């Protein structure tokens, strides 16, 4: 959407335009139907426009405005469609080329973009698609040569963006920011007479994509207007492409185009700086010039310009003096005059583009102050700051290093490396520390070392799952390099993940609240619809990962839409959640276990809900990422060993519900793991990495709240999971469920009564004051305070970096997207998930 806005109005799109891209319905998108565009100028002549392609155009120029005489849009959200999305455009082409009732036709093909997102620029489908596009261009150009009603037609071939090695865009790399722009017409043949025009096949030395010279995307607008004899849109900041001036015969024709562009740009300059004030500066500068715009020998009082406004005044005074001197100086060089006008246009474009990116410094300072205040309050809320602990020092060093990293664009782009290495370092440190403080036999220490090794092994595989960032985008990884060739292996791992979660639902979520047979049936009833939905969704989104798998299931479920299948999955999850809460809370009703820091139980309500949340998060994940949940479970199991290794004696630990765990160690662990899994699941600090594929699961009509929730959970799956896991780690488990179970005697479960009796005895013994017992301290509040300190510190660092580097070359492509991401981490992950969901789960875990 931002690029289409630049290509039609010539203005600088706002950063908020990028967010409107998420609104598929177009309800929140700003319409361009009433703005001054080159399309509007064509319509103003009473001419007709036709459009086929990306339906983003129809959101900007809605059908109710009757902007296009004929139009058909294609959705850009299913990126697995490489064929029909273009055929739906191409099929209209023969009829439109034969018709003579339109004066403007827009074709926006999506196939190349979809292939880039799915397979990257080196994918096997890329070259055939490029050849297909070549044939379409050939068809159009040949029609322009042979059809009389198309003899005055201009063909413009433009890319709204490029792509990096991974097929994404939105960053600052040359492949993303340097798309091609071609003007083609049989009439351009006259430009070659007496003048050589090279057609290079290799880019200029030291560049990757620069064959001729670079122009701004907004330059298309005045160039189109000049070639088609249209008024330039009033808000355009584009500059007429100078080389196109040779289209017209006659001396000074190109100069006339540039001069019209300059007059249009002057109006914007005068509105920006004030008409009277700017004209006064121009007159002062004109007094320093001689005939033809040359500087006078005697120019006292006319020093170097002090600011951008005076620079523009000098350039305009020189250009306007040179043009007005044409009447008296017939020997004036047209190239020199063109250069004067061009200097003003380029300077005005740069200055006004910067002005369009206006910064409200006072508000930015207020934001920095609020972040600093939040950081200060979070630090003061921590119970013990001295003496420093190992975990505390590591947590502080992580926060400081992260803050310093936000001032370097390369570090922001490759942030995942920071978390990958720190996670390894913390795991090694935690393992060594746990071994040194462990009480027990040599076997216990071996168990701790094995747990640390397991975490590192899983970490190594997880970091190879998805290549992310800018430097290594497109490098081989498991998702894009292995699974497409071995999709059966992927589905074995996917089904294993679903099966494992189904088992934990039966053995943990429904333990003691449902009979075994009912628990198994309920777990299967939840899991099977989720598997069927994911299978059918993957067939629609990434058919190369399904191929001929489960044809019978897909045929049987074909009558049911994906929306309905997702709604069934989510509905069953909601029903299971409500039922679990009611039954689990009712189980201890009237007993002593329903109290704060009561005796330990086999499974807390927080853990019961954790596995239901896991199934929801699996549903919201891309299919190739689902096996990572096996790694998550393995790492959680190993971390519980490491974090528990230095706790109190086993007898004391199993008697209280609150775990004997360091909240700072927990905060450090969850912080690192959350960021690691955000990146290894494909996330980055680039807007292009936002995965929209699961943002509309179960939604028939656009709903900003529902889409926002699904979009966040599908992109922050790992961090949300680790928040729930953190809550589970704050509770101790008295005994394992399998150890407490007794066989059924005479059709009755007598062991349930024994368990309740034991819980009553434990609670009675726990009435003794334990105010100084670390297990009774509110670990969760310390954990939340620690997380708040990091989030506030990161937000403060990014705000300061964006303010200090607001004129940086990569402010819009690196630092501003990072600001959006850090706000998502702050509001979405920390406030809503950590504080909101986490505190709710913690409270429920204390209740039952």
UniProtKB/TrEMBL annotation:
GO biological process, one term: GPI anchor biosynthetic process
Biochemical pathway: Glycolipid biosynthesis; glycosylphosphatidylinositol-anchor biosynthesis
One family name in Pfam for this protein: PIGO_PIGG
Intracellular or extracellular location(s): Endoplasmic reticulum membrane
A GO term for molecular function: CP2 mannose-ethanolamine phosphotransferase activity
CC terms in the record's Gene Ontology section: endoplasmic reticulum membrane
Keyword terms, alphabetized: Endoplasmic reticulum, GPI-anchor biosynthesis, Membrane, Transferase, Transmembrane, Transmembrane helix
Domain of life, source organism: Eukaryota
Major place of residence: endoplasmic reticulum
The family this protein is said to belong to: Belongs to the PIGG/PIGN/PIGO family. PIGG subfamily.
Protein name (Swiss-Prot/TrEMBL): GPI ethanolamine phosphate transferase 2
Species, as recorded: Friedmanniomyces endolithicus
Lineage summary: Eukaryota, Fungi, Dikarya, Ascomycota, Pezizomycotina
This protein's encoding gene: LAS21_1
């Amino acid at each position: 959407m931002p690029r289409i806005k630049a290509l039609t109005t010539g203005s600088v799109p706002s950063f908020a335009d990028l967010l409107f891209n998420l609104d598929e319905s177009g309800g929140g998108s700003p319409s361009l139907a009433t703005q001054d565009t080159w399309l509007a100028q064509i319509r103003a002549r009473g001419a007709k426009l036709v459009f086929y392609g990306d339906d983003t155009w129809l959101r900007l120029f809605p059908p109710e405005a009757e902007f296009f005489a004929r139009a058909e849009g294609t959705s850009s959200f299913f990126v697995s469609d490489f064929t029909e999305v273009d055929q739906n455009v191409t099929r209209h082409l023969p009829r439109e080329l034969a018709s003579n009732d339109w004066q403007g036709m827009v074709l926006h093909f999506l196939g190349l973009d979809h292939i880039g997102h799915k397979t990257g620029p080196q994918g096997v489908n890329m070259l055939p698609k490029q050849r297909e596009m070549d044939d379409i261009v050939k068809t159009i150009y040949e029609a322009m040569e042979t059809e009389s009603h198309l003899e005055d037609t201009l063909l413009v071939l433009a890319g709204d963006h490029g792509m990096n090695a991974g097929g994404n865009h939105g960053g600052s790399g040359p492949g993303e920011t340097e798309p091609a722009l071609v003007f083609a017409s049989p009439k351009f043949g006259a430009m070659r007479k007496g003048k050589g025009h090279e057609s290079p096949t290799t880019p200029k030395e030291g560049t990757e994509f620069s064959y001729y010279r670079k122009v701004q995307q907004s330059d298309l607008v005045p160039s189109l207007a000049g070639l088609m004899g249209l008024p330039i849109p009033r808000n355009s900041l584009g500059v007429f492409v100078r080389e196109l001036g040779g289209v017209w015969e006659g001396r000074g024709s190109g100069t006339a185009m540039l001069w019209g562009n300059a007059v249009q740009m002057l109006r914007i300059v005068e509105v920006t700086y004030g008409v009277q004030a700017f004209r006064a500066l121009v007159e002062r500068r004109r007094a320093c010039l001689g005939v033809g715009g040359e500087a006078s020998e005697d120019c006292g009082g006319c020093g170097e310009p002090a600011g951008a406004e005076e620079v523009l005044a000098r350039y305009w005074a020189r250009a306007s003096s040179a043009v007005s001197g044409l009447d008296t100086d017939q020997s004036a060089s047209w190239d020199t005059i063109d250069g004067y006008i061009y200097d003003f246009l380029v300077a005005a474009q740069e200055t006004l583009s910067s002005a369009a990116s206006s910064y409200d410094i006072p508000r930015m300072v207020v934001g920095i102050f609020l972040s600093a205040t939040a950081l200060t309050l979070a630090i003061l809320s921590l119970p013990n700051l001295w003496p420093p602990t190992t975990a505390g020092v590591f947590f502080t060093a992580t926060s400081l290093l992260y803050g310093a990293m936000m001032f370097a664009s390369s570090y922001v782009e490759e942030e995942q490396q920071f978390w990958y290495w720190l996670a390894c370092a913390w795991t090694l440190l935690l393992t060594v520390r746990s071994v040194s403080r462990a009480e027990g036999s040599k076997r216990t220490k071996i168990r701790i070392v094995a747990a640390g090794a397991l975490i590192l092994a899983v970490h190594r595989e997880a970091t190879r799952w998805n290549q992310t960032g800018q430097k290594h985008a497109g490098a081989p990884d498991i998702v894009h390099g292995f699974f497409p060739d071995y999709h059966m292996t992927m589905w074995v791992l996917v089904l294993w993940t679903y099966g494992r979660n189904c088992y934990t639902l039966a053995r943990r979520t429904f333990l003691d609240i449902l009979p075994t047979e009912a628990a198994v049936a309920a777990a299967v009833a939840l899991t099977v619809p989720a598997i069927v939905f994911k299978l059918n969704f993957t067939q629609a989104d990434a058919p190369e990962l399904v191929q001929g798998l489960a044809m019978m299931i897909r045929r049987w479920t074909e009558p049911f839409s994906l929306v309905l299948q997702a709604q069934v999955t989510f509905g069953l999850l909601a029903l299971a959640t409500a039922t679990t809460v009611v039954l689990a809370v009712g189980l201890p009703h009237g007993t002593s276990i329903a109290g704060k820091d009561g005796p330990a139980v086999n499974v807390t309500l927080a853990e019961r809900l954790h596995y239901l949340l896991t199934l929801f998060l699996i549903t919201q994940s891309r299919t190739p990422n689902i096996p990572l949940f096996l790694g998550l479970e393995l790492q959680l199991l190993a971390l519980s060993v490491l974090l528990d290794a230095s706790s109190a004696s086993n007898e004391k630990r199993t008697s209280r519900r609150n775990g004997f765990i360091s909240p700072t160690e927990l905060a450090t662990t969850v912080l690192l793991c959350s960021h690691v899994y955000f990146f290894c699941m494909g996330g980055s600090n680039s807007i292009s990495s936002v995965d929209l594929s699961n943002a509309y699961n179960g939604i028939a009509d656009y709903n900003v709240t529902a889409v926002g929730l699904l979009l966040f959970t599908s992109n922050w799956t790992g961090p949300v999971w680790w928040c729930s896991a953190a809550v589970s780690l704050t509770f101790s488990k008295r005994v394992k469920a399998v150890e407490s179970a007794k066989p059924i005697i005479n059709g009755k479960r007598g062991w349930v009564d024994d368990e309740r009796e034991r819980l009553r005895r434990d609670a009675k013994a726990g009435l003794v004051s334990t105010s100084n017992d670390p297990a009774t301290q509110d670990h969760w509040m310390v954990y939340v305070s620690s997380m708040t300190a990091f989030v506030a510190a990161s937000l403060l660092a990014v705000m300061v970096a964006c303010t200090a580097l607001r004129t940086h070359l990569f402010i819009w492509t690196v630092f501003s997207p990072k600001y959006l991401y850090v706000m998502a981490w702050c509001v979405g992950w920390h406030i809503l998930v950590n504080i909101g969901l986490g505190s709710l789960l913690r409270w429920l875990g204390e209740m039952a």
